């Protein structure tokens, strides 16, 4: 919006408090702060929701792959053939055997439910979700026939076990004897402790070499599933569609969306609801701009009438009051964006401080899945929020600006 010199001067004058106009200035300041807080809240919440989804996706998919080819009875005897077919499918990066079985882990009289995950030696060493999250020990020690395993940090804490100590894993489906089925119990040394950052993984998972898992579970050369990674996880269903008919006789394909459908759908619903509710906060804040401009127009009726008699056009008055309201909204939006970035930068410290002051555990990893509060600002989304804040502010200026532009100087100055 291009203003003339005198229009800029008058707009600047109306933005600053004049004599007897302290209340109008206070309302305008409150309007600016309200817009700032609304924009900051929306940017903060949306960035945290984006980070929550991204962290869950990266860690869940990083450990579980984009899809698994699961045997109908939990076992795949022809897994080598299925893995070969998967690797030949266009868009598939890798296909590796995998075993995953819920069992019991014991140490020094303590018993915890655990999920034993059998992986090839190469997969254990090369998996980024494991390699970068080792708290103590080394994955290089967890290899076939070494008698060593890697366990989650919370599972280690619950069992009271540390690196190098021996843990027993109990397989209830042991060997049959004349006296019934005897559980199979095998001892392993803890070679590494990891903390992925997802509560369920750190609380339950035990990683061991494939051959050791097959021995523990009496699988022979069978595996539980084949893990598949693709070039584009968002198109995993389309990529693996040609493979489904080839393996349907012995297995079913389940992608990451199906495995975690309820979780990601709930996140999407929360994201939409949060956006709508916090957008209403910005809209409510913009009504403060509307009310402050209406009061400003009422207080400046005489000035407006004098300007009209001096030759000011209706369009000039319209531009002046739109500029005043838009300036308040724009400053509030920019300040809100800056405040949002500050909150996101110090989010974990702020969360810890609130938890310390209230004595309540606001971020419970057992409920939130992640141990730390994530964040992933989306530049396009942030620009959209700022445009929305400024757009709402512009709309709020139109009514008072038109009222000012349509002021009749004769009626106002009749009794002056």
What share of residues is helical?
Answer: 55-70%
Number of domains: 2
Q: How would a textbook summarize the main sheet?
A: 6 strands, mixed, barrel
Overall mean confidence score, pLDDT: 84
Order of strands, main sheet, comes to: 2-3-8-5-7-6
Uncertain parts: none
Q: Count the E strands.
A: 10
Computed over alpha carbons, the radius of gyration is 32 Å
Oligomeric description of these chains: single chain
- What fraction of the residues are assigned to beta strands by DSSP? 15-25%
Which H/E pattern describes the elements? Answer: HHEHEEHHEEHEEHEHEHHEHHHHHHHH
Q: How far apart lie the N and C ends? A: 34 Å
The class by helix and strand makeup works out as alpha+beta
Task: Assign an overall shape.
Answer: elongated
Summarize the structure.
With 416 residues, this protein is α+β, with helices and mostly antiparallel strands. Helices cover 57% and strands 20% of the residues. The radius of gyration is 32 Å and the shape is elongated.
Your description of this structure?
The protein is an alpha+beta fold. The protein has helices at residues 5-15, 22-64, 79-88, 121-126, 128-131, 153-159, 199-204, 210-217, 236-240, 244-247, 256-259, 261-299, 301-309, 314-345, 347-358, 365-368, 379-405, 409-413, and strands at residues 67-71, 92-107, 110-119, 134-137, 148-152, 166-177, 180-194, 205-209, 225-230, 251-255. Helix content is 57%, strand content 20%. Strands 2-3-8-5-7-6 form a six-stranded mixed β-barrel. Helix 1 crosses helix 14, helix 2 (22-64) packs antiparallel against helix 12 and helix 14 runs antiparallel to helix 17 (379-405). The radius of gyration is 32 Å and the shape is elongated. The mean pLDDT is 84.
């Amino acid at each position: 919006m291009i203003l003339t010199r005198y229009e800029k001067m008058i707009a600047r004058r109306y933005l600053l408090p004049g004599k007897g106009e302290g209340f109008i200035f206070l309302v305008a300041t409150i309007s600016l702060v309200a817009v700032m807080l609304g924009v900051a809240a929306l940017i903060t919440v949306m960035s945290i929701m984006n980070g929550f989804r991204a962290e869950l996706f990266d860690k869940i998919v990083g450990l579980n792959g984009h899809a698994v080819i699961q045997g109908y009875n939990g076992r795949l005897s022809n897994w080598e053939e299925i893995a070969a077919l998967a690797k030949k499918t266009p868009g598939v990066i890798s296909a590796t055997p995998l075993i995953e079985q819920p069992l019991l882990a014991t140490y020094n009289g303590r018993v915890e439910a655990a999920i034993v995950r059998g992986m090839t030696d190469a997969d254990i060493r090369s998996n980024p979700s494991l390699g970068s999250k080792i708290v103590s020990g080394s994955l290089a020690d967890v290899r076939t026939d070494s008698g060593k395993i890697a366990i989650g940090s919370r599972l280690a804490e619950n069992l009271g076990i540390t690196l190098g100590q021996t843990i027993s894993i109990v397989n209830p489906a042991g060997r049959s004897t004349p006296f019934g089925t005897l559980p199979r119990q095998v001892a392993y040394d803890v070679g590494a402790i990891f903390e992925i950052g997802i509560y369920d993984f750190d609380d339950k998972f035990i990683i061991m070499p494939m051959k050791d898992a097959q021995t523990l579970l009496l699988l022979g050369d069978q595996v539980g599933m084949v893990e598949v990674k693709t070039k584009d996880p968002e198109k995993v269903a389309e990529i693996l569609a040609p493979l489904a008919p080839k393996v349907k006789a012995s297995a079913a394909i389940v992608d990451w969306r199906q495995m975690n459908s309820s979780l990601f759908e709930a996140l999407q619903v929360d994201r939409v609801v949060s956006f709508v509710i916090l957008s209403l906060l910005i809209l409510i804040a913009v009504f403060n701009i509307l009310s402050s401009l209406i009061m400003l127009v009422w207080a400046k009726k005489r000035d407006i009438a004098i300007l009209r008699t001096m030759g000011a056009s209706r369009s000039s008055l319209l531009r002046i009051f739109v500029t005043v309201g838009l300036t308040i909204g724009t400053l509030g939006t920019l300040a809100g964006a800056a405040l949002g970035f500050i909150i996101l930068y110090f989010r974990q410290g702020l969360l810890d401080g609130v938890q310390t002051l209230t004595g309540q555990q606001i971020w419970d990893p057992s409920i939130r899945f992640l141990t730390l509060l994530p964040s992933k600002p989306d530049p396009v989304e942030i620009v959209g929020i700022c445009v929305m804040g400024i757009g709402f502010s512009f709309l709020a200026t139109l009514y008072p600006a038109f009222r000012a532009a349509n002021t009749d100087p004769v009626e106002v100055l009749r009794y002056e």
